[in-house]
Amino acid sequence: MKRGLLLGIVAAVVVVAIAVAFVVPTLFVQRKPAPQEIVVGAVLPMSGAFSQIGLYFKNGYELYFSEVNKMGGVYVKEFDKRIPIRLVVYDDESDPTKSATQLERLITVEKVQLILGGYSTPLVQAQAPVAERYKMPYINPGGATSVIFLTEDGKRRYQYMFGLLASIKNLALTTIEMLKQEIDAGKLPKPLKIATVNENTDHGREYLAGLKEGARKYPGYFEIVYEAFYNIGEKDFTPILTAIKQSGADAMLNDMRLGDYITMHRQYTTLGLCHLVVSYGPRGPEGRAISELGKAAENVFGVQWWNPADPRPEVQEFNRKWDAWVKERNLNLPSDWFAAISYEAARTLVWAIEKAGSIDPDAVWKALNTLNSPQNGLKPSIVVGGVIYFPEESGGQITNPYVVVQVQDGKPVIVYPKESATGTFRVNKC
Q: What is the pTM of this model?
């Protein structure tokens, strides 16, 4: 009896000793100290040719971060707490060389924990290799040219790139699909004779290639009678416009930056040109263009990644938040896709941090890679289609649909596709 009791006591002591051996050390293991803030860097064109868009992007990022910070910051499981998030912006002066240098400085000198992308194809092309070299996930809301995402043989170019703008090629093909619908309805002539002027970049070349592919798809529907390239920032389009006038085109379909579109269309109007349909690629119904061009902007249409005229409640709620934000800061920045897509880029980054439970770039990158299809995407979202995803087959570039938006009576109206339309397409009377 005594022997049994003794053995029981010994066994109990052993069990307690083992438990203590496992438990006590954990009492002294300290959790990794949390940073005071999460610092996110972005190199944006705050001066130079793209400065107004840089201002849009900066405010889109800051608006979302301000919403997060009102809740105490981003919840990071690794530290089991919410941490405020702060944006640091360097200016690349709209210069690709400076854009790459500034991004490297943000990563190596400023020591930002994560980054967000810049604006315009040339600047994104300059930044992408830097992000890849330092293995920093790069959410790109400002560059849509396919060459950013895919190599010539169709392979993913950058493993750390995640694009929130669908391709320029698909933008051009959407233009063709919409115009074919109008031709079939008897509103436009067949074949529709097209003049096209495009920026002398990969962006412009991809748009032209998309138009030609669309024309080949529908034999007898389209004929390109004039094509030309121009350099970004061109001030005098008179020679090109004179050639367009002489070409006998029914439609003018261009791919241009916002400032170039406004410059060219002023001269177009002064010279008295008129075409049944006029588009400047993704440009046309921007608030700035409508404000500066006035009646000259009537019936110009753009094929866009997003537009504030979208009637979805979540889009209208974003418009209200954006308008309040810029009004408070006395900024003349009407709600536009630049604002919405940059806002969603910041939202995607915060989602990835929370999904990863960490601010480690590799963990955040792995979280972003789970958004590989519409089924696995981040939703709901204010992007067209309502979901954010980065398919491998497109090099990490979203493949969501576009909306065609036309200026009607001084306001943007969605005219295509049918399920998104808030009005019907108008043809100019020439």
A: 0.86
Would you kindly state where each structural domain of the chain is located, as residue ranges?
38-166+311-399, 169-304+404-416
SS3 content of the chain, % helix, strand, coil (to 5): 45, 20, 40
> How do 81-83 and 85-91 pair as beta strands?
unpaired
Q: What is the pLDDT of residues 268-300, one digit of tens each?
A: 999 999 999 999 999 999 988 999 999 999 999
Residue 32: pLDDT band (50, 70, 90) is confident
Does 412 sit behind a cis peptide bond, omega within 30 degrees of 0 on the bond before it? Answer: no
Give the CATH architecture of domain 169-304+404-416. 3-Layer(aba) Sandwich (3.40)
Task: Give the contacts of 33 (CB within 8 A, at least 6 positions apart).
Answer: 79
For residue 176, the number of C-alpha atoms closer than 13 Å in the C-beta half-sphere is 27
Has domain 38-166+311-399 been given CATH number 3.40.50.300? no
- Burial profile 121-142: b = 16 or more Cβ within 10 angstroms, e = fewer: bbbbbbbbebbeebebbbbbbb
